[in-house]
Design goal:
Shape: elongated
Order of helices and strands: HHHH
Largest sheet: none
Distance between the termini: 26 Å
Structural class: mainly alpha
Protein backbone atom coordinates (compact mmCIF):
# COMPACT_ATOMS: atom_id res chain seq x y z
CA UNK A 1 0.00 0.00 0.00
CA UNK A 2 2.80 2.45 0.79
CA UNK A 3 4.18 2.33 -2.75
CA UNK A 4 0.72 2.51 -4.29
CA UNK A 5 -0.06 5.58 -2.21
CA UNK A 6 3.11 7.29 -3.44
CA UNK A 7 1.70 7.17 -6.97
CA UNK A 8 -0.85 9.74 -5.83
CA UNK A 9 2.10 12.10 -5.31
CA UNK A 10 3.43 11.30 -8.78
CA UNK A 11 0.02 11.89 -10.33
CA UNK A 12 -0.22 15.23 -8.51
CA UNK A 13 3.13 16.31 -9.92
CA UNK A 14 2.03 15.33 -13.42
CA UNK A 15 -1.11 17.42 -12.96
CA UNK A 16 1.08 20.36 -11.92
CA UNK A 17 3.01 19.96 -15.17
CA UNK A 18 -0.14 20.40 -17.22
CA UNK A 19 -0.81 18.67 -20.49
CA UNK A 20 1.46 20.85 -22.63
CA UNK A 21 4.70 20.91 -20.61
CA UNK A 22 6.41 17.87 -22.08
CA UNK A 23 9.74 18.67 -20.40
CA UNK A 24 8.07 18.59 -16.98
CA UNK A 25 6.09 15.46 -17.79
CA UNK A 26 9.18 13.63 -19.03
CA UNK A 27 11.15 14.69 -15.94
CA UNK A 28 8.46 13.35 -13.59
CA UNK A 29 8.04 10.15 -15.58
CA UNK A 30 11.78 9.46 -15.72
CA UNK A 31 12.86 10.68 -12.27
CA UNK A 32 10.02 10.20 -9.78
CA UNK A 33 10.55 6.52 -9.05
CA UNK A 34 14.28 6.98 -8.33
CA UNK A 35 13.59 10.06 -6.21
CA UNK A 36 10.88 8.26 -4.28
CA UNK A 37 13.19 5.31 -3.70
CA UNK A 38 15.93 7.63 -2.47
CA UNK A 39 13.61 9.16 0.15
CA UNK A 40 11.45 6.10 0.79
CA UNK A 41 12.35 6.01 4.48
CA UNK A 42 10.77 9.46 4.88
CA UNK A 43 7.70 8.31 2.97
CA UNK A 44 7.40 5.25 5.20
CA UNK A 45 7.80 7.44 8.29
CA UNK A 46 4.90 9.55 6.99
CA UNK A 47 2.76 6.50 6.29
CA UNK A 48 3.47 5.07 9.75
CA UNK A 49 3.29 8.34 11.69
CA UNK A 50 0.78 9.19 14.33
CA UNK A 51 -1.76 11.74 13.15
CA UNK A 52 0.00 14.53 15.06
CA UNK A 53 3.30 13.82 13.28
CA UNK A 54 2.11 13.25 9.71
CA UNK A 55 2.64 16.81 8.52
CA UNK A 56 6.29 16.88 9.61
CA UNK A 57 7.11 13.67 7.75
CA UNK A 58 5.12 14.59 4.64
CA UNK A 59 6.81 17.98 4.45
CA UNK A 60 10.29 16.42 4.76
CA UNK A 61 9.50 13.86 2.05
CA UNK A 62 7.86 16.39 -0.26
CA UNK A 63 10.70 18.91 -0.06
CA UNK A 64 13.25 16.23 -0.88
CA UNK A 65 11.33 14.71 -3.78
CA UNK A 66 10.43 18.11 -5.24
CA UNK A 67 14.10 19.13 -5.18
CA UNK A 68 15.11 15.79 -6.68
CA UNK A 69 13.12 16.20 -9.91
CA UNK A 70 15.23 18.50 -12.06
CA UNK A 71 15.43 19.95 -15.54
CA UNK A 72 18.31 19.51 -17.99
CA UNK A 73 20.29 22.20 -16.16
CA UNK A 74 19.91 20.44 -12.82
CA UNK A 75 17.44 23.00 -11.45
CA UNK A 76 14.45 21.76 -9.47
CA UNK A 77 11.25 21.86 -11.50
CA UNK A 78 8.99 21.98 -8.44
CA UNK A 79 9.09 23.99 -5.27
CA UNK A 80 7.33 22.67 -2.21
CA UNK A 81 4.73 25.10 -0.91
CA UNK A 82 2.67 23.62 1.91
CA UNK A 83 0.16 26.46 1.55
CA UNK A 84 -0.45 26.04 -2.13
Amino acid sequence: MNDAASHVVKFGLLEECGEEDTVCIEAVESQFDACHEQFKSDWNAYMDAAYSEEDVHLERYSKQVFNCIVDADGDAIFFYDPQG
